[in-house]
Amino acid sequence: MSKFPENRFPAPKKPRPVRGGIKAHSKRGTFGERWWAKRWIGVLEGFGLGARLTRGRSYARRGQVIEIAIEPDGVRARVQGTRTAPYDVAIQVTPLDAAQWRQVAENIAQTPRFVALLLNGEIPEDIEAAFQAANCTLFPEAIADVHTECSCPDWSNPCKHVAAVYYLIGEEFDRDPFLLFALRGIERDAILPAIAIEEPTRQTAPMQPEAASPPAAVQRPPLERPPVDAWLLRRTGRFPFWHGAVPLENALSAVYAKAGESAATLLAETWPDPD
Q1: Ramachandran sector of residue 230 (left: φ over 0; alpha: ψ -120 to 50; beta: rest)
Q2: b/e string for 189-220 if b means 16 or more Cβ within 10 A?
Q3: What number of helices (H) and strands (E) belong to the chain?
Q4: Is 56 in contact with 81 (CB distance < 8 Å)?
Q5: What is the pLDDT of residues 125-173, one digit of tens each?
Q6: How far are the Cα atoms of 10, 101, 137, 188, 213 from residue 123, in angstroms, in the given order?
Q7: 205-238, pLDDT tens digit by residue?
């Protein structure tokens, strides 16, 4: 018979329930589906956090994270724990400086395959070569590359609240890999112009003057449906941390289609008929 009481260590308190929190899509097993999301999660799980990782996964799946914002200076989040007030969490990956990003962009632009995959919303598995040539990396390689803070009283850093946010960010990378660049201080609007391959200027023959002719009647422009539903919404990127049953762009496709029909009808009714 043990001389220690059975309940020597009290059971950990359950966190306060959150209404409308951000819940992970993963219900069990690993987080992340695409290789770059798994790579991000692998960095966290390589920190040796032990039981805090398990609790962090539980927090992410229970919806204990109230909000997440990816800002130029890193990630800001609020996580509900056992206390009344939520905890403030901050995660920052060492950003690239201007010279590093300029060199990375040049390296990417020199590899058309990299450009094509990025324009398609994918990260090439060997893209790290473009970063290594600029003496930097896309993914954090050590715990020193990731700076984390939490207002909770836990002495350990990263704690379970930081881990919960980290897991949810990894899932978001599945849907929008450009957020990974944002954590390195590179916004989406700066990526595509920087890696775009300019077409050579075409030489055209000089135009010859023509005899004046009466102006032709202006014809109504052809009404063509965009090749992709809700193309403008898709071009601007996925809505961050959208956890609806279907992607937001799919949910709004019917609204976009109705607006397109209304615009086409209005154009047909108001365009003047040719004399």
Answers
A1: left
A2: eebeeebeeeeeeeeeeeeeeeeeeeeeeeee
A3: 11, 4
A4: no
A5: 999 999 999 999 998 877 778 899 999 998 888 899 999 999 999 999 8
A6: 46, 16, 14, 13, 54
A7: 555 555 555 555 555 555 555 555 555 555 555 5
Query: Which residue reads 């496709």 in tokens?
Result: 253
Contact status, residue 161 vs residue 56, Cβ threshold 8 Å: yes
| Rounded CA separation 69/43 (Å) | 21
Output the pTM of the full model: 0.68
DSSP character at residue 140: -
- CB of 230 within 8 A of CB of 252? yes
Spatial distance between the Cα atoms of 249 and 240, rounded to a whole number of angstroms: 12
Tens of pLDDT, residues 178-210: 888 888 888 877 887 777 654 444 454 555 555
- Strand arrangement, sheet containing 65-71: 65-71, 74-79, 87-93, 146-150
Q: Which amino acid is present at 132?
A: Q
Tell me how far apart the alpha carbons of residues 12 and 205 are, in angstroms, rounded to a whole number: 79
Tokens of 162: 């930081």
- CA nearest to 93, candidates 125, 52, 127, 138: 138
72 close to 185: Cβ distance less than 8 angstroms: yes
